[in-house]
Amino acid sequence: MSARIPPADGEQATGAVTTPGNTPPSDQVAVAEAPTAQYPSEQIPIEGIAPPSADRPRPPAEVLADRLENDGFFAKLFDFTFTKYVTRTLAGPVYVVGLLLIALSAVFGLITSMSTAIATHSFWGVLLFLFGLLLTVVGALLSILLLRVVIEMFVAIVSIAENTRPRKKKDLPQ
């Protein structure tokens, strides 16, 4: 099936658009129409989408499409295809909860070492308390460091995955 390009007023027919495998006759040459600029500042629309305009209100369908494109937390959380990542959203709250748990553990460790020191009723109890204090503080600091490194590792892996997955046509630079 071939489509003919109608000639403009006063012009002679010079070409036809042909389908693959169909060659034009010798007096016609296959041509392609170039899009013409119909918008201010000579912008050519991409795939039939008009450029945003301050005087043109956005239709509700376009607003809804933007909302669906920018999924919320729960939409990402229940995405069973795992195409949306929730790791970056959860990294901060997980870090805060982890810090709170480490702080509670440190307080529990201090209380335990103090009660053990008091229960000994001797000079060794003071040394036992100091040893428990040292272990609690060092353990808390190492736990904070390990928590931070693990969360950063997960965020880095997700960042790599987001940057290496195939992009949609609308995400590619024009």
Please, could you describe this protein's structure?
The chain is mainly α. The protein contains 4 helices and 3 strands. The protein has a domain of 84 residues. A 3-stranded mixed β-sheet has the order 1-2-3, with no helix packed on it. Helix 3 packs antiparallel against helix 4. The radius of gyration is 34 Å and the shape is elongated. The model has no long low-confidence stretch (mean pLDDT 75).
What is the C-alpha radius of gyration, as a whole number of Å?
34 Å
Distance between the termini: 31 Å
Tell me roughly what share of residues is in helical segments.
40-55%
**Helix-strand sequence:** EEEHHHH
Please give the order of strands in the largest beta sheet.
1-2-3
Features:
174 residues, mainly alpha, 3 strands, 52% helix
Write the layout of secondary structure elements.
Blueprint: E1 3-4, E2 15-17, E3 29-30, H1 60-69, H2 73-77, H3 87-120, H4 123-164
Parallel strand pairs: 2-3
Antiparallel strand pairs: 1-2
